[in-house]
Every structure is written in structure tokens, then in C-alpha cells.
Amino acid sequence: MNSTKRLVGSYEKYLLTKWQPSEKLITFTSLKLAEANSNMRDKITQKTFTPASLTKTIDESVQGSAYELEGQVRTEGRLAYIETYGCQMNFSDTEIVASVLSEMQYGFTSNIEEADLVFINTCSIRENAESKVWNRLKQFRKKKKEKPHLMVGVLGCMAERMKSKLLEKEKLVDLVVGPDAYRDLPRLVSEVETGQKAVNVLLSREETYANISPVRLNTNGVSAFITIMRGCDNMCTFCVVPFTRGRERSRDPQSIVEEAKNLFQQGYREVTLLGQNVDSYKWSAREDLKGKAQIDKAIRSGEDLELVDFAGLLERVAQIHPDLRVRFSTSHPKDITDDVLHAMAKYDNICNYIHLPVQSGSSRVLELMNRGYTNEWYKAKVDRIREIIPDCAISSDIITGFCTETEEDHHKTLEVVEYSQYAHSYMFAYSERPGTPAAKKFEDDVPEEVKKRRLQEVIAMQNEISHKINQNDIGKTFKVLIEGNSRRSDQDWCGRNDHNKMLVFPKSGDFKAGDYVYVKVREATSATLKGEMVDY
Question: Which of 82, 112, 251, 381 has a CB 3.0–4.6 Å from the CB of 208, allowing a cystine?
Fold first, then answer.
């Protein structure tokens, strides 16, 4: 454990000495000017990582989706086309961008042929996601030749990391906008309209977009995501988030509660509180404390602060209305507290479901990943969750074949999967990306065929566990929030229960999307429960 602490300490020292983002958001309209003022910062931020802690929110069915605002009145005004890739944070950011563009009098289209402005919101999590983005940008370049006034821009993590290649080398885009610069879109778009290239990728210690009401795009009108914080201070050696999204800073709780209240009044019945590590949520009313790091420093110096932590925020949102179901994502095993667990146990409308990424079952590999916990510590956390919330479903993220992983390490991962009895997991073979701390410090020495074989063994075990757990649900009755029609038949509803499991059941009565019903399970696969509505 001491060696793990040494690793955490040395890497935090590295970050604090090498990476010091501006206290205020500074913008640039010239790439050369931006680079001239950020040479030191670029040494740290030009990295690619593969954070499995985010992959759980990647829904392959919506990757590359283009958004159109439902019910908008088509006008002769300018139209924006926004295509999004990556995790749920990216899709949430797209809604913020849409809000800013709406204020600029843009409408939205899902037909690129109609667009005056094209944005692609990008992801640096996996090589596959980046490859899709590059291919799409080359297709957009052809569109620009046909339609010279078309403006093309890149948003998100790739924008921060690859601005030089995007603007100067490949000459694929007109503007590049990082995750903390969306308020600057009116100025950046104006610069492009005058024939210039525009870029703003600087990170901020303050930006949370708290006072921007997201435009809900392509929504089912039932479930919505609320971003409660931005950035991350956990320095996992495979993860780029602290460098592409900045240090942790939390939104003020009142703005979060108001957003949730407004959603409930609009008919939404489920909100997911979203952040890279929601358990690190920490807010102080002191205006001079701009992020978690500064708040923690003030606490260590003995200052008496009135704080709202994640457990307190959960309670505030749960108290809005018993019919507003509350979820959250993502938790870090070392940061989730008993207070959070007790809040979940106290309120029926806080779902009994926790995504608790383990990444590896080997303490040695976990130390290399800089995860801050051991095999034994993680299993103790699982035990604590089940002690306080006996009916809690747990899911996880798992990487196979990380640097130096041995067969013994792999079997420890299988052992943790078996011990934890995950409802489901998101499982990936490790893929080294250029520029990561892991790539710089460790050799990617596990052969590809070994990685894939180990991955298949983890998948096989997880599928067996998931099937067994779902089989045990046969005969049980669950409260289900109807989300809409089943994908396979408009004669069936689909919705999720408290454990985040999808249930499919025949329609009957006068129910509609957004209603709660009770469903008795009759059949089960490893992925879906099937049943019928019952009186309860």
C-alpha cells in the first residue's frame, strides 16, 4: 500500500508542477498565437488515453448520431448539424453547445445537406472512435468543396489534443473548440465567417456551464442527464481526462436542483447526475475556491467551510419529488463514501445501482494503473455496499492485458468478477495509445492474441453471471419506468427497473412513456428481462 501512495504522490506532483491552467478562460483566434502562449501546457496535454472508466457510457447504437431539436419550427435561418461520438459527457456537452447555438439563432438539422455549420463532438477514449472522426472529417471536406460557405468545426477531447493537426497539417476544419470554450462559440464562428481559422482549447478552473440550460436533443422526454461537475483529479496512468477536461470543479448545488426541478415539471421522470467522478463532488460558496483541489487545500489548512458533498447533493435532488428517479455515474471505488450509500438506502427514488469500475483484480496491476486501491480493498468496498444496500446491483469496467499483466494477474481479475457478482460489465482489451503515462513508462508487452483470449474469458464469466442473476429475477415483480416503444415491436413497452435492467412487456391500458408500472418477469436472457404488467 505504501508503494501505491508513493505512485499517487509522485504523479500528483508531476501534474502540479507541469500543468497549470489559466485561472480565467483565455481565448485565441489564431492557432499560432495559441501555441505561442501554451508551449509548456501542450507538452502535457497532447496525449491520448483509453479510460475504461468512461466507456461504460458509450452506447454504440448512438455513436455518430446527428441531432435535431424535436418540434422545432423550420425557418429560413441558419442550420447547424452536430454529430457526436464518445461517452455520455460528450452527448451532454452537445446539448450545451446546442443551447449556445440557439442563442445565436441557429436551428438544427439531421441532414448535412441543409447545414450551414457542421460540428463533430469528438472522443479520445479509443482508437476506433478517433478513426471514425478522421473519416467523417474527410467526408466533410468534400462537402465544403461543393458548398464553400459551409463551416466545419471540431469539439471536445480531440479538439484539445490535436488542434495543430486538425487546423494546419490536415486542413480539415475551420474552428477547433475545447470542452471549456463553448461560451466562446459566437466569437469563434464570427471569426470563421470573416475567412479566418479560429481556436480556443484552453482549460478553465471555473467553467461548469451552470447557468446554461441545455437544449434536450433527440430525447425520449423521460430520462435526462445533468452534468454536476467537470474534469477529474484522479491520475490513472491510462486516462487523458485531467488533461483534456481539466481539474475537478463542481457546479453549485442550487443550479443542479433547479435544473432537475425544471425537468420534472416538463414531464421527465429520471435524471442521471453525471461526472467523471461524481463521488468527488464538493462545492463551497466561497468564490475564491474554484475547484476541489483548492477546497481540499483550505480544509487541510484548518479553515472552517460550509460544504455540499455528493451525499448532500443526492439528498437534495431526491427530495424534489418521490416520482423523480435519481441515478448517478461514475463512481470511483476509492471515493464513494458510506454517506452516499446511506443516502441511497434512505430514499426509495435513488436507484439501487452503482457502477464501480475495478479495471483489474491484481493489486500489482492496479498500482501500475495508479488506481489507489488493492484487490482486498475493492472487495471490502463491495461488501460494504451489500451490507448497507443488500439489494444493490453493481456493474464494472475491466481492462485485460494491461502492461506486464501475467496469467496470475488475469486470474485475480476473474476472481474479483466472480466475487463481486456484477450485474454486467464493460470489458475491453488494453490498447496502448501514444503519449499516455503508461505508454511512456511501461512496455505494452502482452501479445494481442493473449489480450483477446483473456478478454473472452472475462466476457464468458460475466455473461454466465449476468444470465444467472437475470434467471433469479424470473417470478419477481419490479417497478419500471416506461421509456418508450420496444426496439423490436411497437406493441411492446420497454423501460428500466431500479437496477438499471431493461424490461420488455406488452402494452395494455392507457399507460404512456413516463409512467411507472409494475412488471412481473416471465423470461430472462443475459441482457433483457421480459414480462407483463401486473397490479401491485
Answer: 251
- Taking the C-alpha atoms of residue 504 and residue 487, their distance in angstroms, rounded to an integer, is 10
User: How many C-beta atoms surround the C-beta of residue 411 within 10 A?
Assistant: 14
CA distance 235 to 240: 9
Query: Do residues 529 and 479 make contact, with C-beta atoms less than 8 angstroms apart?
Result: no
Which amino acid, 339?
A: D
User: What single letter denotes the amino acid at residue 438?
Assistant: A
Backbone angles phi, psi at 93, to 5 degrees: -65, -35
The number of angstroms, rounded, from the C-alpha of 467 to the middle of its chain's C-alpha atoms is 27
87 vs 376 pLDDT, higher one: 376
Lowest mean pLDDT among 74-88, 289-303, 417-431: 74-88
Residues whose CB is less than 8 angstroms from the CB of residue 17 and which lie 6 or more positions away in sequence, other chains included: none
| Amino acid in the structure at residue 309 | D
Beta bridge partners of 422: none
CA dihedral 85→87→92→95, nearest 10 degrees, is 0
In 3D space, the residue among 216, 481, 210 whose CA is nearest the CA of residue 324 turns out to be 481
Question: What band does 134 get if pLDDT is binned at 50, 70 and 90?
Answer: confident
Annotate 142-153 with three-state secondary structure.
HHHHHCCCCEEE
Q: What angle in degrees, to the nearest 10, is found between the helix axes of 375-388 and 407-420?
A: 10
Distances (CA, A) of 313 to 43, 96, 283, 284, 285: 36, 22, 10, 12, 14
Which residues are CB-neighbours of 140 under 8 A, at least 6 positions away? 112, 118, 120, 150, 152, 172, 173
478-520: pLDDT as tens digits: 999 999 999 899 999 999 999 999 999 999 999 999 999 999 9
Q: What's the per-residue H, E or C state across 24-71?
A: CCCCECCHHHHHHCCHHHHHHHCCCCCCHHHHCCCCHHHCCEECCCCC
Q: Which of 287-296, 366-375, 468-477, 524-533 has the lowest mean pLDDT?
A: 287-296
Q: How far is CA 267 from the centre of its chain?
A: 24
Question: 5-44: per-residue pLDDT in tens?
Answer: 333 333 333 333 333 333 232 222 222 323 333 332 232 2
Please give the full DSSP string across 199-216, using - where no structure is assigned: EE----SS---TT-----
